[in-house]
Fold this protein.
Amino acid sequence: MSQLVIDALVLGSIYLLFCLGMSISWGTIDILNFAHGGIFMFSAFVASQIVSHVELGLITICVISAVVGAVVSAAIDVLAFQPILRRAKNQRTAELQILIGGIGIGTIPVAIVQFYTLSEPFGFLRSTYETTVHSFGGMRLSSTGLVVLGCALVLTVSIAYWLKNTSHGLALRAIGVDSETAELMGVKRRQLSLLTMGISGGLAGLAGALLTFNLGAITAESGETLLIKAFAIIILGGVGSTGGAALGAMILAFSEVLVLRYTGGGWVDAVGFGLILVVLLLRPQGIFGKKEVRRV
Amino acid sequence: MSDFYFSNIVLIQSTFTVLLLALSIQIQFRMGVFSFAGAAFYGMGSYGVAILVLHYDFGAFSALATIVVICAMVGYLLSLVVQRLNGLYLAMATVAFVMIVTVVAHNGGTLTGGSVGLFGVLTPVEISVPHLLAVCAVVVAAMIVSERGAMGRRIEAVREDPELASAMGINVARYRKMSFVLSGVLGALGGGLNILMMTAIAPENIGFPLIVLALTIIIVGGSRSWIGVLIGALIFTWLPVVLEQVGTYQSIVYGVIVAIAAIFMPGGITGIVTDLYRRRSARSNADAFESEQRLEARAAEEDAAEAAELQAELASSTTPSGGSR
């Protein structure tokens, strides 16, 4: 039983790292980035290509992957999302165009990686890092699992602090409430948007590297299912709420681990999708979310 | 002609089944409902027909009709369930619905054939291109009717400004529910006809890739009219054949096309064409202004004549009867 708890915590931490970036960019600058899954997988892929030439350790690989993610995400912001926001007539059409553009952009890295790997799984074969398994009291936790847990904890807390207590965070939250008024108050929307997308992409890249270490290998399509699960987590916790994302990730992970334990593996994915429907029906604003007021 | 027909029969078939799939999603976009449920109905249509034919010995037409009715009902129920949702939340709820259909297909055991899927769906009456074309013709005719006249204007009002539309006395909720029912009918027709011609279906043929395909078609062709969807369906079924050397890069090219279309031409190809048309008519506005003035003058003359006529009529009718009705 306690082994189940550890498995769920590690799984939840990976979900959390993945969806944290999506949650910030959606909650503040109104960009629901559907290319996030592509960025996540592509960063890990670039890192794996580098590792196949040079032997590197865990930390270096994670840093490379995070940097790649940040750069790709910022580039997508500049090339796609900002032009859409500039041209869109109103917020509703902007939201939809960003979603559709994101889905389109997200298929590009997936297609590139499928092309290079011939849809085979890829991993960090020549890294110097080796997993060790710690066991205590009949429970087992790998060193990778430990790193994942630590990263998720540290990053979630520091992002929550960043949003709550720094001037950048305040400005971002102000954009989330009312972007026009915030701009009149001297908030530089474009720059902050770039920063947010960069951070969001960096988190995606880190999550990609860590998931690859944890599972041994991932495939080009790994981002797609995670994307919809991340959406479930974000609406479960409330859009833009860091604590909510953490709670949502853990709830999803625990339910999935339990379903895996008591039924066949095939139904695991239905948990996330079912959760989306249930949450949207019962409490659309999420556990920690505030009701969105939109005036006509 | 017949050589061309027989060597490309699979492409011709998929052009029209994909057209039905894309229309099942476009009809909801057209009513301002951001839903991908059509992809789920396509999957349900494919699996439903396959199950009825393989396990319950249905004929082609009875299986198709049954599934269309079932999907229309499921569409109505779904519309009640997601009634309160809008925008992105609605989109994601329907994506979740599509994915649940896929998970059920994966885990349905012998009923859905698990991850292998179902194959050998053969019926005594062979469904072929003429049947498909007939169905598409009826569907497109219905689309044309719904895009014109009062109906077309009402749908446009529901899409552009639901609050204004309901203030004008249009029952917006009813239109939204109707869009789900119609999506169910079109999706089921597309999926059902597809399985009757292709005879096999697997879980990887339904689900998220269908959403991407339909979106690609709608975004590039244009979401306002059935013509855009038809153009998109033609492009994306025949593009791989035309650009055979692109082959392996195909999905990369698709992604780039969708991204560019979403960023720079939100109205799609049909949107660009109508924009150009409007700009041209704006350029010839000078002539238009002149002729308008002439028209107005004529209209004023006619009005005056009509008024005089009416007056005369009134005078003649009021004098004898004393003015009472």
Remarks:
- DSSP finds 14 helices and two strands in chain B.
